[in-house]
């Protein structure tokens, strides 16, 4: 597919630039000939409409990657329902509505594969959105993200704005959250395996049954897909971004232990939730456009462990 929207010479705002996704976008955009705009949390509280308008009017972005959000793993989602719903709605509404007001040429909104119904057929096709009840553990986040997709569609229809949405599967990589209480499973197991190895422990605790299936995409692949979509995609429908295969949490724990060098056994903590039984995206739409993920899960885990050792351990 040809490039319809060039980033060359443009002012590109990465909203949420300090997070895992935003920082990957900043790395990837470094290869485009564009000016990258950033606003720190101290400079700009994205939950405040007037502040967002003032900042955007002053900084004049031509394009926006909307990667700012309150995110977290299965327990964080369950423990902070109000923040996951309200803060995310505020952040995205403020940015999307102001992008319309100022006539921003292109905006890409980032969601998540948790927008799909809990028991939707697998792999998850884009059209399964809103065909059934959500997974309760992350419904607050999911409702905000579904609203974001609809906001982009509404501004496309009503105002002719080129606002699009991408729905990535579970992500991991540099700048992930490695705090065990609020992180997602991959960084959590990486830290647990590392600490168990250092302590010479014989056991590592895995939450839930180990049976849920998840798909994991390296965040640098996501950033590449986002730039690809920004340059080449313009339509109502959101686009799934995944790697095309999933693993059980048990298999993930084994892969991580192999990368870290932990040789003990796993203990399953059934007091913790399993969440949705499976989340595997159908990426036919994205593959049809000509984009495929480049990082295998074992390679991505090895690279992330190296990053963790050098930067976060
Ligand atoms: P989800 O994809 O929204 O369910 O988010 P998570 O990445 O937090 O959890 C994925 C699955 O991994 C769930 O079944 C968790 O119970 C399981 N899991 C196993 N061990 C852990 C852990 O130490 N931390 C987290 N966050 N999840 C874990």
How would you explain this protein's 3D organization?
The chain has 10 helices and 13 strands. The chain has 313 residues and is an alpha/beta fold. A 6-stranded parallel sheet has the order 2-1-3-4-5-10, sandwiched between helices. Strands 11-8-13 form a 3-stranded mixed sheet. The chain has helices at 20-29, 49-59, 74-79, 81-102, 139-159, 185-199, 219-232, 249-260, 284-289, 297-311, and strands at residues 11-15, 35-37, 63-66, 106-110, 163-168, 170-172, 203-207, 213-214, 216-218, 239-241, 247-248, 265-269, 278-279. The termini are far apart. Helix 2 packs parallel to helix 4 (81-102). It is globular and about 60 Å long. Helix 5 (139-159) links the parallel strand 4 (106-110) and strand 5 (163-168). 42% of the residues lie in helices and 15% in strands. Bound molecules: guanosine-5'-diphosphate (GDP).
Quick summary:
This protein has helices at residues 20-29, 49-59, 74-79, 81-102, 139-159, 185-199, 219-232, 249-260, 284-289, 297-311; strands spanning 11-15, 35-37, 63-66, 106-110, 163-168, 170-172, 203-207, 213-214, 216-218, 239-241, 247-248, 265-269, 278-279. With 313 residues, it is an alpha/beta fold. Helix 4 (81-102) packs parallel to helix 5.
What is the strand tally? 13
Major beta sheet summary:
6 strands, parallel
Structural Rg: 19 Å
Give the N-to-C terminal Cα separation.
Answer: 42 Å
What is the topological layout?
Elements: E1 11-15, H1 20-29, E2 35-37, H2 49-59, E3 63-66, H3 74-79, H4 81-102, E4 106-110, H5 139-159, E5 163-168, E6 170-172, H6 185-199, E7 203-207, E8 213-214, E9 216-218, H7 219-232, E10 239-241, E11 247-248, H8 249-260, E12 265-269, E13 278-279, H9 284-289, H10 297-311
Parallel strand pairs: 1-2, 1-3, 3-4, 4-5, 5-10, 6-9, 7-12, 8-13
Antiparallel strand pairs: 8-11
Helix pairs in contact: 1-7, 2-4, 4-5, 6-8, 8-10
The structure holds guanosine-5'-diphosphate (GDP).
